[in-house]
Amino acid sequence: MKRLAKGRLLFMLAVTTLFLAGCGEPFISALQPAGEVAQTQYDLMLLSTFIMVGVIIVVTVIFLIVLFKFRRKDDKIPKQVEGSHKLEIIWTVIPILLLLVLAVPTVAATFDLADVSPMEDKNEEGKTDVTVVNVKANLYWWEFEYPNQGIVTSQELVVPTDEKVYFNLLSTDVKHSFWIPAAGGKLDTNTENTNKFWLEFDSKKADEVGNIFYGKCAELCGPSHALMDFKVKAISKDDFDAWAEDLASMEEAAQPETASAEQGQEIFNQSCIGCHAVTPTGANAVGPNLTTFGDRTHIAGYLEHTEENLKAWIKDPEEFKPGNKMTGQYGDLSDEEIDALTDYLMGLKVED
Amino acid sequence: MSTYAQKKGVGAVLWDYLTTVDHKKIAILYLIAGGFFFLVGGLEAMFIRIQLAVPGNDFVSAGVYNEILTMHGTTMIFLAAMPLIFAFMNAVMPLQIGARDVAFPFLNSLGFWLFFFGGVFLNLSWFLGGAPDAGWTSYASLSLASEGHGIDFYVLGLQISGAGTLIGGINFLVTIINMRAPGMTYMRMPLFTWTTFVTSALILFAFPPLTVALFLMLFDRLFGGNFFNPDMGGNTIIWEHLFWIFGHPEVYILVLPAFGIFSEIFAIFSRKRLFGYSSMVFATVLIGFLGFMVWAHHMFTTGLGPIANAIFSVATMAIAVPTGIKIFNWLFTMWGGSIKFTTPMLYAIAFIPTFTMGGVTGVMLASAAQDYQYHDSYFVVAHFHYVIVGGVVFALLGGLHLYWPKMFGTMLNEALGKVTFWLFLIGFHLTFFIQHFLGLMGMPRRIFTFNEGQGFETANLVSTVGAFFMAVATIVLLINVVMTIAKNKKVGGDPWGDGRTLEWAIPSPPPFYNFKQLPLVRGLDPYWIEKMEGNKEMTPAEPIGDIHMPNNSFVPFVISVGLFIAAFGAMYHNEHSWGIPVLIIGMLVVFGSMFFRSVKDDHGYHIHKEELMDDDKGGKA
C-alpha cells in the first residue's frame, strides 16, 4: 500500500515534468532548459512548485471541508471560538520549515549564478581564458563584441556550446534587459554600470533547435520594445573558433560579386556606412554591424530573412520598428537603389 | 441645522457634496470617482487584451499601446484601487470605532479633492498630446527619454493625488488613536479598523519616498535637473530604489484593507468571531513592518549582486509566514461556523484559493535565482493580478455589496450580484492563470505585439476571452447599481442580520452625526455581544447632549484647483511664456485659500440636545 502511494507520487512528478516540458517552443521556453543556468532555475522552479502544490492541497482540503460541512442549515448560533494556540503554532512553524527548504538552495544558486571570477582573471596579453562577450543594448538592436577575439557583430550572438560564456552588459541609451529564456534568466543592461553574468548552452539542446535560440529585451524601452529580439547561434567550440578566426582575419569588407551588388556597395558607401560597419571592428557603433548580414537568420532581429523583407525594411523602417533611430537618416532611395542595396547586403557573408 | 431630511434641488445637492466634510459623503465621493477610474482602467485593460488576442495585431499602434499599458497600471493602482479602499475606510472605520467623524474633517475633504484633481490632470494627458508611456514604474532612463508631456502629466498628477493620499492616511491614524468610543481598546477594534490603522501608517512612511522621487523627476524633466542623468553624475538606479521603497509597501497598502474587509465578511457570514483575532492583528502589523524590508525583490535583475539579492530573497519569503497565518485563521473562522453564501461571502470564499495561488507564486518570485527567469515576464503579470485582483478587487466588490446598505440604505440585488461574481471569477482565472505559462514560455511583459511561431498564440487568445467575461461582469454590476438606485427600497440598520460591529448598530445610512450618544463598548464585536444578551441596541456611554459638528467648506476644492492650475503652468513653462505666470497664479490660489482658512475662525456648530430628542430618525446609542 505504501509502495503504491510512493509510485503514484513518482508518477505524478513525471507527469508534471512532462506537462511543463510540453509548454512552449524549445528555442524560447524557460520550461525546456538548454543550459546549466536555465537548468538550475528550472530545478528550483520544480522544487518550489512541489512545495507550493503541497500547501495548496492542504488549503484546498480544509477549504472544501468547510464549504460542505458548515453551510447554514438552521438558525443556531455556532460556538464563538477565540482561537487555538496549538493550531496557530503549527501553521507558523511548518511554513517556516518549508521556506527554509527553499531558501537554502535559493541562496546557494544566487551566489553560484553570480560567480564571474573567471572573467576577471586576465593573462599577460590582457585576455581571459574564457569566452567573454560585451553586450551593448541600443534602442531596438544589440551589439556583441568579443574582446578576446577582437571582433564585433550585432543582432546575432554566436556562442560556443558546453562551456560557460561570460557577459558584460551595458546600455547606450535607455535601460534594456538581456534575456535568453531557454539558456537562463535575464540581467538588465543599465545605463551607468556594467552588469556581469554567465550562461551555458548545451550542445544537445542546441542541435534540437537547429542551433538557434531566441533572445528578448525584457525591460520596457520604448515603442518597439516588443520587437527588440535577437538570435543566439550556439555552435561547437571548434566551429566557434573557426568562425571567430575567419572574422578576425578579415581585412576589408566582403566584395560584391554581381554588378547589381557593386552598385549597391556604392550606395551603401554613400548613405549607410556612416552608421553601419561592414568589417568586424568598431565597438559602440551608431548602427548594427553588418559584416555577417548575409549569414543572419532574421532581419531587424525578428523578420524572416528574405529579400522582400529587407527591401521593405530599408524603404520604411518606421513601419516595422516605430521609434527606431534609422528612419530618416539616409534620404529617399529609389526602388532600383534598394534592389541593388539588397543584393549587396545579402552577399555580406563569412560562412559558406 | 437639521435640514438633512429636507428634499433638496440638484444644485443644492451638488454644492453640498462639493463642500462636504462628512466622512460618509466623502466616502461616496471616493466611491464614485474611484469607480469611474476603475471603469477607465478596465477599458484600457480591454484594449490591451484585444491588441494581444492574435499575433501581429494592429488594433493599436506601438506607441499608443505603451500609453495604454502605463495608464492602465497607474489608473488602477492610484486612481481606482486606492480611492475605492479610501471609500470604505471613510464609510466604515469611524462607525466601527464609534466616532462621529474623522479627526480632521476639513483635511478629509482636502484629501479627496487633491486625489480627484490629480487623477483628472493625469487623464487629461489623453487629450493634450499623449499619455505617459514609460510604464507605471516610469523607470528613469526611459521616462527621461520619453518625448512630449506624457511623463510630466504622470509626475505632476501623481504628486497632487499622492499628497491627498498622505493627508488621508495621517487623518485616519489620528482618528483611530484619538476618537475611539469608550471601551473601544486597541485589542477590541474590528480587523478592518486595524488594517486601516496599519495601512495608514504604511502610507505615512511610503508616500514620502514617492514624493521625493517625483520631485527629482520633475526637476529633471522640467527644470534642468540631472538627478537621473548618468552623463552628469546622476544615477537611474536611485529612481528604482525610491520607487520601490514606496512601491512595495503600496502593495500592502492595497491588500491589508482588503484583508480587513474579508475578515469582517468571514465573521459576519459564518456567525462566528474571527478565529485567532490577536494573531491576525499581529500578522497585520508584521506584514506592514516586513513590507518595508523587501523592496529590492523588484530589482533582482538590476545587478545589485548576490549578497543583496540573497538577503532580500529570504526577507521576502518571510512575509509568506504571517500571510499564511491569516489564510488559516480565515479558514478556521468558517470552520464550525454557520456559513451563508451571500454575494460578499462568495467573494471572500473565492479569495482564499485565488490569493493562495498569488501567494505561492509570490514565494517563487521571492527566490532570487529563479526570479531571473520570471522577472518582467508574463509570469509576473499573472502573479500580481492574482494578488491585486484576487485580493484587492475581490475585496472591493465584496465590500461594495456588504457596505452598500450601510452607505446608501438600500441593498444591491443578490441574484445579479451572484451573476457578476461568477462571471468575474471565471473570467479572471481564464485571463490570468494561463499567463503564468506564457511567461515561462518566454513572453516578456509590456510587449505590444508578438510574432507567430513562438508558441504564444493559443494562450493569448484564451486570456483575451477571459477578459471579456470580466467586462460583462462589470456591466452586470453597473446594471445592478442602477436598478438598486431606481428601486430605492430602504433597509434597516443590520440588513444582513448578522452584523457584529458598531456600524450595524445604527441606521442605514447613519444620521449625519452617526451616534446620538456614544456607545459603550464591552468587548470585541460589541454589537454582537449586545444582541446575544438580548439587547436591541448599544448601551450608551453618555447622556444625550449637544453634539459639536464642523461646518462645510469650499476651501479644499479651491486649494486643489489651485494646484491643478499651477501644474499646467509648471508643465508648459519651457515652451510657453504664460507658464510661469500660471504657475504663480495657481500657487497664489493655493496659499491664498490656506491663508483664508488660517485667519478665518470656523468653530463649527452644535446640534442641540432638544433637536436630538425630537429626532427619532435613529442614532440611538
From TrEMBL, chain A:
Membrane topology field: Multi-pass membrane protein
Transmembrane segments: 44-68, 89-111
Entry-linked Pfam families: COX2, COX2_TM, Cytochrom_C
EC number: 7.1.1.9
This protein's GO CC annotations: plasma membrane
Positions of the Cytochrome oxidase subunit II copper A binding domain: 128-246
Compartments, record wording: Cell membrane
UniProt keyword annotations, A-Z: Cell membrane, Copper, Electron transport, Heme, Iron, Membrane, Metal-binding, Respiratory chain, Signal, Translocase, Transmembrane, Transmembrane helix, Transport
Domain spans labelled Cytochrome c: 259-349
Cofactor note: Binds a copper A center.
Class of enzymatic activity (EC top level): translocase
Signal peptide: none
Catalytic activity annotation: 4 Fe(II)-[cytochrome c] + O2 + 8 H(+)(in) = 4 Fe(III)-[cytochrome c] + 2 H2O + 4 H(+)(out)
Top-rank taxon, per record: Bacteria
Residue ranges occupied by any Cytochrome oxidase subunit II transmembrane region profile domain in the UniProt entry: 22-117
GO molecular function: copper ion binding; cytochrome-c oxidase activity; heme binding; oxidoreductase activity
InterPro entries: CcO_II, CcO_II-like_C, Copper_CuA, Cupredoxin, Cyt_c-like_dom, Cyt_c-like_dom_sf, Cyt_c_oxidase_su2, Cyt_c_oxidase_su2_TM_dom
Function: Subunits I and II form the functional core of the enzyme complex. Electrons originating in cytochrome c are transferred via heme a and Cu(A) to the binuclear center formed by heme a3 and Cu(B).
Family: Belongs to the cytochrome c oxidase subunit 2 family.
Protein name: Cytochrome c oxidase subunit 2
Lineage: Bacteria, Bacillati, Bacillota, Bacilli, Bacillales
